[in-house]
Amino acid sequence: MFIARQPIFNQQLEVFGYELLFRLESQSTQFGGISSQGATATVITGLYESGLENLIEDKYAFINFDEIFVHSNALELIEPGRMIVEMLENIKIDRTLMDRLEEIRHKGYKIALDDFKENYCEYPLMPFADIIKYDLIATPLERIEKDVIKALSQNKILLAEKVETEKEYLEAKEMGFQLFQGYFFSRPSIAAKSYNKTTSKSQYVRVIAEIKKVDPDFDALAELLEQDVTLAYRVMRMASFRSGNDLVSSVKYALTYMGLDELERWINVIMLQDLGKDKPEELKKISLIRTKFAESIAIHGGMKKLQNAASMMGLFSVLDAILDQSMEEALMGVALPPSILDALINHKGVLYPIYELILSYEKGDWNVVDNISKELNLEETVLVRNYRWAIQWANEVMILVS
Description:
Blueprint: E1 2-9, E2 15-23, H1 36-50, H2 52-56, E3 60-65, E4 83-87, H3 95-106, E5 110-113, E6 131-135, H4 145-153, E7 157-161, H5 166-175, E8 179-180, H6 201-211, H7 218-226, H8 229-243, H9 251-258, H10 260-275, H11 281-300, H12 307-316, H13 319-323, H14 327-330, H15 338-346, H16 352-363, H17 366-375, H18 380-401
Parallel strand pairs: 2-3, 3-4, 4-5, 5-6, 6-7, 7-8
Antiparallel strand pairs: 1-2
């Protein structure tokens, strides 16, 4: 069972929840010969057993239901404080459905209407809805202004879907939308700001350049790190985490303990965290998920020798959004292998299939995921397991680098 997630943000660009995108089988978008109710039970049970906390942490799970899915007893496996019951736009409405929605609302579940484009005042399910999702492509803001005013007067929560630009985000926010979903936060257009960083990009570049030398000088490297007390502290903290009970008494000892490959990896992680200080936490978390996911794809997809390059490609894949620059500008001056530059800037080369697979997985574009997985001889179970592992690893790292 494939499961991907897309973040849903509040007005402060904090994650409110994740819409979970799933498919039961890698070979079909259908239900593989089982009933819709059985499919739902399988999905929800799978989420429950795989550890919902790893997928949505302490946020809400937005899960799609149709008129058959919603009657599944498996729905109650996930407690009301963790799940939003999202009704699909093409749902068949009858008395039985409305009675069931009344029942689950009474149990504390919130109900969302997906891709809403019906007549607001006449839609039969409106009295049951807590959240209304508007697709800004299908229903532009200027067309729904009166409905938005009506919804807000009835204390409905409005969620703008497919928000692609900062302008759309700000307009929807001004109109009264409280929640937002889309890729606007991961593009170099969301709130360019002046940064007050303790460590500059140029300082990171100098450190990485020393690491990349044929014969790196540990004394020079330690000196570079010690020029910034915060950076030195964070490297020491990473080394201490790795060392267990061993005492890490100096920056130079931390370097020798970690080794150059491990050091470079953590310097890159810390750099993205630092440069993205004023960005949504989710954007930085995505970079961490991608670095681990890309590494695992390379290992299991017949490109084990490229696992480090794949990992770095995943990490730097959001640098354009973090720096509010084009990817080419963002990577300027950073010593990266040509294979990474080819994938991120030119969308070609040996690493590009991994990059494309990651993006398609995040969007729930399962046909593309299938095709690339076949090319790389990746089994579905491996892909699913490593995606979940990447999320768990990213959560742990976010705590360490904070």
